[in-house]
Amino acid sequence: MVREHEPLVLTGGRRLSFCEVGDPNGKVAFYLHGTGSSRLEVALYAEAAQRHGLRLVAWDRPGSGGSDDQPGRRILDVVSDAREVAAEVGAERPIAVGLSGGGSHVLALVVAGADVVGGGVVGGGVAINPGPPADDDILADLPRPLRVSIKLARDRPKLFGALAAPQEGRGGRLIQNLVGDERQRRQLDPLTRAFLERPEVAPLVAAAAFEGRRQPRAYTTEALMLWHNAWGFSLAEFPVPLHVYAGEKDPFNPFSQRLGRAGAKVHSFPGGHVSGFLPQVLDDVMRTVAGP
Fold first, then answer.
1. Within 13 A of 290's CA, how many CA atoms are on the CB side?
2. Which of 31, 84, 119, 147 has its CA 20 to 30 A from that of 5?
3. Per-residue pLDDT tens over the stretch 267-286
4. Contact (CB, 8 A) for 231 and 76
């Protein structure tokens, strides 16, 4: 289902692990995994990508899965990585898709990488429940527990890292917690939990989770990169079209709605943060990427 490639050696010698799913002869699109996860998360999209004639290429960001670390990385560094992946797979301005922290990186590509993504009718990016920067005016709209956590990463990174370390050992965040944290699974809406625990789906979730654990503190390192540092670009407007898929119960939903007011097209769906993996959402996202 997942077709692995030999690691790509980037300019400067850093190695990047990448893979693909879907139609090998289809329209190329990029998939950016959630923070603390891995490229293998793209396996959840395989059927929908195949159905819509898409070749969906995913890679581990620096320090995640099989990709080399990149000390001092900033979110805008995703632009140069995406440019080299596009050249490697022969893609001309593919649409970028990402969930959670991957959605944050989609925003960077849409704003600062319009020469890399954004070709065709549909536009440049599809961000699913994207995580926000740690700007005070954006955090003011978020639920208090989330706001406190992000501010802790921004203002007291050492304490944030110390508090995150025990959970990192249990698998970080996002789909990792669905593998090893029963309390986290109980908080999911019933439809999402039932889908992710299907016999044909659960191994895909586990594989992405365990690959995401390969390098220590992958979640914490990227979370601090996202929230301790300013992003360095404006979200007031988008030079290429941006679609945002927003779970109605996702704690990041206020940020998604803010992106809508800045010009993104917002698609709402029932459920919370990881409900973006539900088949109907995956299918709708792939349909949007495939275009008319």
1. 18
2. 119
3. 999 999 989 999 999 999 99
4. yes
| Domains, in order of start, for the chain | 3-290 (3.40.50.1820)
Using one digit for the tens of pLDDT, what is the confidence trace for 41-77? Answer: 999 999 999 999 999 999 999 999 999 999 999 999 9
pTM for the full predicted model: 0.94
Instruction: Report the amino acid identity of residue 135.
Output: D
Q: Which residue has the tokens 């099989």?
A: 66
> Cα(12)–Cα(272) distance, rounded to whole angstroms?
39
